[in-house]
Amino acid sequence: MLAEVLIFVPSVARYREDFLMSRLERAQIAALAMLAEAEVDADVQEELLQNAGVYNVVLRRDEARQLMLSAPIPAPITKTYDLRNAGALELIRDALECFFNAQPEVIRVIGEPVNMAGLLIEVTMETGELRSAMIDYGVRILWLSAVISIITAVLLFLAVRVFLVKPIKRVVGNMEAYAAKPEDARLVMQPSAGVTELRQAEETLQTLQTQLTAALRQKEHLAQLGGAVAKVSHDLRNILTSAQLFTDRIETSEDPIVKRMAPKLVNSITRAVSLCESTLAYGKAEEPTPTLNRFALADIVNEVIDSERLSIGDHDLSLSEDIPAALTIRADAEQLYRVIANLVRNARQAIISSGQPGEINVSAGERDDFWDVRVSDTGPGLPPKAQEFLFTPFQGVASKGGTGLGLSIAAELVRGHGGELMLERTGPEGTVFCICLPKADLQR
């Protein structure tokens, strides 16, 4: 509509100007005919004026105005239009006035004669015929615009259908097919749209579908692995229970070394049985709710360090602890043992795999609202990928051959206490993990 206005209004103004110029030219021809004939009767003058479509003609030649043709004027002259120096805005304004004024008027029109036939020519005419011609011209322009608009609309409809509707229908069809079988990688969207924005949407959908398919496959693998682990844990629990019965007899031995090592062996087997039972519970839902009791943290840490020393062998690795003897915390002893043992074991494996000497230290402190336990080492630090998926199962793998389950389980156990397991820092100088346990009761 804006284009129609910008084209239609100047076109009508131009048509009005051409119409008036045509009347001036016809009036000039009639005036020249009068100059050619010395005597012209009244009937011929009236016929010349009717052919020119004017009431009178004034021609200025050699600075003298001369009334060439004249007829009675039915009404007074209301306006005068000079076409010699009329601007575009003036022509548009005059055209709109004539177009919307339904009452015929008598106007004077001034212009320049063609072919240097004089200085100026002036005619008097009525606006009724001019307005009718302008309306006819406007109707023809509107019909032409309507035809062009219809053709444009059809072309636009076809273009939208080809370039937008069909690709969108293809995307919708792909989404419906993928929703029916999201695990089928063959149904992942293959971008092919020519429109840039639509192709970007297809590429984004392809990425989402690829990630979802991979996640579903991983979920299926995890479900299968969970079933296998539950079966293994069930059988392993029975085996460890039998081993636990044998250790009861070992405790009666008089050998000093056996007496010193037997309690540790008993504790290790007991924890293994507890771990199997917890694994079975995890396969059904999640880690069991911690049983909170007061205990000395130093005892748990010492057991972890004594257990890890057996795995060091001849490597240049030292284990130390900095736990106040009087520090007691409120937590689940078995679950906290698993968390600390996992962190110390990861640190030991990282230092041994680097081939460099190192040190692992477990320290603890007490604040107003929480206890904090730190496990620090002088190992090579965590790789970037392990840092990105640190607590994600099967993805936060820090060492070759690892599963990425240890830290995720440890973080879940700490969250069960209402606390948080955090990576404080890591780098070539070493790694520090912090376990924060709140002193307040758990809100469940």
What does this 3D model show about the protein?
The chain folds into three domains: 143 residues, no CATH class; 36 residues, no CATH class; 150 residues, Heat Shock Protein 90. The two termini are 66 Å apart. The longest helix is centred in the middle third of the chain and has 55 residues. Helix 1 packs antiparallel against helix 2 and helix 1 packs antiparallel against helix 4. The mean pLDDT is 82. It has 444 residues and is α+β, with helices and mostly antiparallel strands. InterPro entries: HATPase_C_sf, HATPase_dom, His_kinase_dom, HisK_dim/P_dom, HisK_dim/P_sf, Sensor_HK_Regulatory, Sig_transdc_His_kin-like_C. Pfam families: HATPase_c (PF02518), HisKA (PF00512).
Could you give a quick summary of the protein structure above?
The protein is of the alpha+beta class and 444 residues long. It has helices spanning 2-36, 42-52, 88-100, 128-180, 196-250, 256-284, 297-312, 333-354, 384-388, 406-416; strands spanning 56-61, 64-70, 77-82, 106-111, 120-126, 293-296, 317-322, 328-331, 358-366, 370-377, 420-427, 430-438. It has ten helices and twelve strands.
What can be said about the biggest beta sheet?
Answer: 5 strands, mixed
Please state how the strands of the largest beta sheet are arranged side by side.
Answer: 2-1-5-4-3
Whole-number total of structural domains: 3
Please give the number of β-strands.
12
Give the low-confidence spans: none
Strand-helix topology:
Layout lengths: L1 H35 L5 H11 L3 E6 L2 E7 L6 E6 L5 H13 L5 E6 L8 E7 L1 H53 L15 H55 L5 H29 L8 E4 H16 L4 E6 L5 E4 L1 H22 L3 E9 L3 E8 L6 H5 L17 H11 L3 E8 L2 E9 L6
Parallel strand pairs: 3-4, 7-9
Antiparallel strand pairs: 1-2, 1-5, 4-5, 6-8, 9-10, 10-12, 11-12
Protein name: histidine kinase
EC number: 2.7.13.3
InterPro entries: HATPase_C_sf (IPR036890), HATPase_dom (IPR003594), His_kinase_dom (IPR005467), HisK_dim/P_dom (IPR003661), HisK_dim/P_sf (IPR036097), Sensor_HK_Regulatory (IPR050736), Sig_transdc_His_kin-like_C (IPR004358)
